[in-house]
Amino acid sequence: MTYSIAQAAEHSGLSIDTLRYYERIGLVDPPARDSGGRRNYSDDDLGWLVFLTRLRTTGMPIRMMREYAQLRHRGAATAGRRKQILFEHRASVRDRIAELQSCLEVLEFKITHYEQIEHTMIEGITA
After folding, report:
1. How many Å apart are CA 84 and CA 13, to the nearest integer?
2. HTH merR-type domain location, by residue (predicted)?
């Protein structure tokens, strides 16, 4: 099945401009074109776009994404380096999750604190 650039954008959550940018910087291979010159994305293209979106959402820098994409083109011989990139990025994501968890705990504490203040105020009014 093939998808227009608008459908690929919708499926991946990326904008049309971002798809064109990713193509221009080499993150995405130029998709096939129809007889009118319009881009036609394949299911494999969409799978790659979803993966790129996950990398970006988790904070991988574009330069690392580009390295990964370039290695991908060189085939199985680069599997070790690609795995290492993902391994390092996974550690970064885990660190970020731990940081966010710590922030969440502070927010939970503050919310509980303010709920206690409100409860005390209501008790004081009804007493």
Report:
1. 27
2. 2-71
Report the SS3 class of residue 33. strand
CB atoms within 10 A of CB 73: 9
Q: Does domain 1-57 have CATH number 1.10.1660.10?
A: yes
| pTM of the predicted structure, to 2 decimals | 0.81
Domain borders along the chain are 1-57, 75-127
- What would the pLDDT profile of 83-102 be if each residue is shown by its tens digit? 999 999 999 999 999 999 99
Residue 60 Rama label (left phi>0; alpha psi -120 to 50; beta): beta
DSSP string of 45-96, one letter each residue: HHHHHHHHHHHHHTT--HHHHHHHHHHHHT-GGGHHHHHHHHHHHHHHHHHH
Task: Tell me which DSSP letter residue 14 carries.
Answer: -
Tokens of residue 48, six digits: 């790659």
What does the pLDDT look like over 47-70, one tens digit per residue?
Answer: 999 999 999 999 999 999 999 999
